[in-house]
Amino acid sequence: MSFGVTFCLVIIGDCLCVLCDFVVNSPDGYCGKESVVSILSLFMNKFRLLCFIFSVFLVIFVVTRISSAQITDPIPQPIEKSELSVGLAEVVQIPNSRTEISNKAARLNLLTHARDGSGRLFVNDMRGKLYVIVDGTATVYLNLQKIICADLIYETNQQGFAYFTFHPEFAKNGIFYTVTSETKHSGSSDFPVTKPIIDNNNQIIESSHHDVIREWQATDPYSNSFVGTSREILRIEEPYSDHNVGQLGFNPNAQPGDDDYGLLYIAVADGGSDGFPVSDTDPLDNGQDLGTPLGKMLRIDPFGNNSTNGQYGIPADNPFVEDHDPKTLGEIWAYGLRNPHRFSWDSGGEGKMLIADTGQAFIEEVNLGIKGANYGWGEREGTWVIEENNENVLLPLPKNDRSHGYTYPVAQYDHDIPPEVKGFYGIAITGGYVYRGKAIPELIGQYIFADFGHDSRFFHVRVDELVDGKQATIKELRLFDGEQEASFLEIIGKKRSDVRFGVDEEGEIYVTSKQDGKVRKLIQQALTRD
């Protein structure tokens, strides 16, 4: 018999006892008008008391059930250190960011190549400059501070000149793309925020800024200083200052004539949190809303013109083009993402697309890029349920979970905060690349990624083990500074890593940090440690 039924029977029985007691002990042996009134009065008082007691027990019962179901250590097994190790060799120091109000280490966010056979590397400082690296020397290729001027927002942690990517035919057409954070008066948003924006004091506030994607065309693709033209292709209004538009990229495995060739992928975070200290991330529930680009992976044709603004195309084979809901955005390729600021494709093997999605309070995710997938945010974090009214509470999956159709991570790690730590301790994944270079043979086929917070560990997992429906085993990659094994924090001499990964045309992997503005390269470590 259930708790609720049992308690209800106790209440009814107790009330009947009250009634019988008054009948039996009535001085006249029966219930007169006054006796009835007295009985009803005491009956109601007794009933109210019992209802109150029942309510208290019910609350205790519900809280106890939730507490027993709540998960506080989702992945109790620690990540083991690997037998694999690498060294880090410094390539170049990028100049400090010199602005009107600061002279700090360059906030390096992405390093890549132009696929033009030149061997050049390009790296961006989020405060507005794109550098080209030739033979270990860095010079300014494009200065967005001067072009965008006062409209560029770059002094906060997650805003600025965030990402760039080169068109597959850059060597011929000179075309590349950038995403920048800009003031709202600098243009009209193609995707305005339509919901009330609430801060953590429950006050309605204005949106934060616009993220703008531009196409640039260099007159001479092989020049080491940009001269050319640009055009704006789309603009997204951001409700909060964090969780903005992330990486831009083209599938490097697609060849001319393939359906995916020349299509631009755009990682867009959920729009951010309600202020600091954070009480709610994605309070607008953008992750599951197909009517907004926030919390999505977009896929567009930058050379097309069938978009609403006419500046780009929406591919006909995008998964939601024909869903017959006028509110659904055809640009969406996948959804349910929190902060997918990094993605990449394996340039070998099966050519898998991998998306790193930064977690909330518990889980950091590596996801397979799957067309039309719903990765679950903000109803799931990793392979667990987020409590509806408190995203810092994690619960097990329901028995009917398959009916919801979520796509889960293929590798994940949780937030293991050292017991001696007091105060804030940030843990957040940054995605990397599958190693396909030649300098470190033992690393071939390993997906290399890391934590960019205070955790700062480097990780690896075999790309062949990243399979939908399974969880791959993550191992910690050992780092060496010369002949001494060291953490990345020890190598850079900082308390937070802010690490990012890059890759060159040969498949070799590079490491940057916003903390010191240096570019480093993964190299083979002669000293093997078991």
Description of the molecule:
With 530 residues, the protein is of the alpha+beta class. Helices cover 14% and strands 31% of the residues. It has 5 helices and 30 strands. Strands 1, 23, 24, 25, 26, 27, 28, 29 and 30 form a 9-stranded mixed beta sheet that branches. A hairpin with a 7-residue loop joins strand 20 and strand 21. The longest helix has 37 residues, at 33-69. The N and C termini lie far apart (58 Å).
Label this structure with key terms.
single chain; 530 residues; nine-stranded mixed sheet; four-stranded antiparallel sheet; disordered N terminus
List the helices and strands and how they pair.
Layout: H1 3-24, H2 33-69, E1 81-93, E2 97-98, E3 103-104, E4 108-112, E5 121-125, E6 129-134, E7 137-143, H3 144-148, E8 161-166, H4 170-173, E9 175-182, E10 209-218, E11 228-238, E12 245-250, E13 264-268, E14 296-300, E15 332-335, E16 342-345, E17 353-357, E18 363-368, E19 380-381, E20 384-386, E21 394-395, E22 411-414, E23 429-434, E24 446-451, E25 458-462, E26 475-481, E27 484-485, H5 488-492, E28 499-503, E29 509-513, E30 518-524
Parallel strand pairs: 1-26
Antiparallel strand pairs: 1-30, 2-3, 4-5, 5-6, 6-7, 8-9, 9-10, 10-11, 12-13, 13-14, 14-15, 16-17, 17-18, 18-22, 19-20, 20-21, 23-24, 24-25, 25-26, 26-27, 28-29, 29-30
